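Feature request, filed as a ticket because there's no other form

It would be nice if the structure record came with a short human-readable summary line next to the tokens. Right now we just get the raw output. Example of a typical job, pasted below so the devs can see what we mean:
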Amino acid sequence: MAEPGIDYLLSLTDSKYRLTVVVAKRAQQLLRYQFKNTVLEPPEWPKMRTLEGEKPDPNAVTWAMQELRTGRLSIGEGLVPEDRLSRMLDQMYPREVPEPVAERERD
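Raw output as currently delivered:
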């Protein structure tokens, strides 16, 4: 986690371990909903430099750390339980689930 501003992120939690867990869980949520649930505005999206120029960074951990840096996410007690949050996000951002393939009837 050698990101710029790591000292600020560490000040939001009581330990490196908690910060790691919070960032990992948020990154998992971002991936699950294909970044549709981000709190970042387009100009704030993390960028990476390539030979073709700057492109959006596909790393969910970088996105999660950027979200924490903005102060729009809360860490601590009294938050919405994770299962309830998942149900709410599933309603807001339905995922495309492939339909099961019907088995062929044997003659």
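Something like this underneath would help us a lot:
Helices lie at 6-11, 16-32, 60-70, 82-92.
The radius of gyration is 18 Å.
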